């Protein structure tokens, strides 16, 4: 199970990060149709401040900040999601 959060006020860059995350999730879902994932865009400043980031937009995968202050490429996001899936498999 993947829990993806995009942190940011909803500006153009934040929305681009969300689009990249959705594209990466779609690519992974094509490889594994049983993939379970949620994606949430967090815009509440109080919630965003719970994470150790200095700049938005930020991308959080399963509670871990993987990127902040820039728009990652889809391939990067896909890699982070794969790492999170591999880590979850090891914990089982």
Structure commentary:
The chain is of the alpha+beta class and 92 residues long. The chain has a single domain, classed as Glutaredoxin (3-Layer(aba) Sandwich). It has helices spanning 12-31, 45-48, 74-91; strands at 2-7, 37-42, 58-61, 64-68. Strands 2-1-3-4 form a 4-stranded mixed β-sheet. α1 (12-31) crosses α3 (74-91). It is globular.
List its traits:
Glutaredoxin, single chain, 92 residues, 23% strand, four-stranded mixed sheet, alpha+beta, 4 strands, 3 helices
Summarize the structure.
The protein contains three helices and four strands, in the order E-H-E-H-E-E-H.
Count of extended strands: 4
Radius of gyration: 13 Å
Query: What order do the strands of the largest sheet run in, or round the barrel if closed?
Result: 2-1-3-4
Helix proportion: 40-55%
N-C termini distance: 12 Å
Helix-strand topology string: EHEHEEH
- Major sheet: 4 strands, mixed
Q: Which of globular, elongated, flat, extended, rod-shaped describes the shape?
A: globular
Q: State the domain count.
A: 1
Secondary-structure-derived class = alpha+beta
CATH architectural group:
3-Layer(aba) Sandwich
The mean pLDDT is 93
What's the CATH topology name? Glutaredoxin
CATH superfamily: Glutaredoxin
Low-confidence stretches: none
**CATH top level assignment:** Alpha Beta
Number of helices: 3
Strand content: 15-25%
